[in-house]
Amino acid sequence: MKLAKIVAGVLFLVFCVGANGAERKYILTPRPPGTQDLPFSDGVLDGNTLYIAGHIGIDSKTGQPPVSPEDEARLVMDMTKQTVESAGMSMDDVVSIQIFCTDLKLYETFNAVYKTYFHGKFPARAFIGTNKLLRDGRFEVTGVAVKK
Questions:
Q1: Which of 29, 141, 31 is nearest to 76 (CA)?
Q2: Engineering a disulfide at 48: which of 4, 23, 96, 147 sits with its beta carbon 3.0 to 4.6 angstroms away?
């Protein structure tokens, strides 16, 4: 029994300490009703690198995406920004973004909102067409940020 507790403690440390010896921080931001128990973190900070989970723009009051694609793009970017800031970073620390979109005709619509979240240079980025997203979202955003 004592050995099992020691092994469990060592495994816990391995799980919570990143490759560079820094403690990992698991970011959980407020989620819409019915989604609080989903099995993922909104971001994982390992040393100076933040791995941002996929965010979809779901209205916390309705549980659905906003009617307007612009409002949904703003909401998904706000959620991404909230995760980044919860890790003590800014959007200028984001180095890579992937956007999944169910309608590639919304490329310019998304870009009009997206560019307002950055100052100066933009992160590397992919805009990827997909058939369907969870909860009938139009956009899903994931990325990586590195603290300067």
A1: 141
A2: 147
pLDDT per residue as tens digits for the range 12-44: 333 445 555 678 999 998 876 677 788 999 999
Fold of 22-146: 60s Ribosomal Protein L30; Chain: A; (3.30.1330)
Q: How far apart are alpha carbons 77 and 71 in whole angstroms? A: 10
Q: What pTM, to 2 d.p., does this model score?
A: 0.83
CA distance 105 to 107: 6
Domain ranges of the chain: 22-146
pLDDT digits (tens, 9 = 90+) for 129-140: 999 999 999 999
Q: Which two tokens stand for residue 52?
A: 């941002």
As a whole number of angstroms, the distance between CA 94 and CA 72 comes to 20
CB 121 within 8 A of CB 90: no
Strands 94-101 and 49-56: unpaired
Quote the CA–CA distance of 93 and 147 in Å, as a whole number.
6
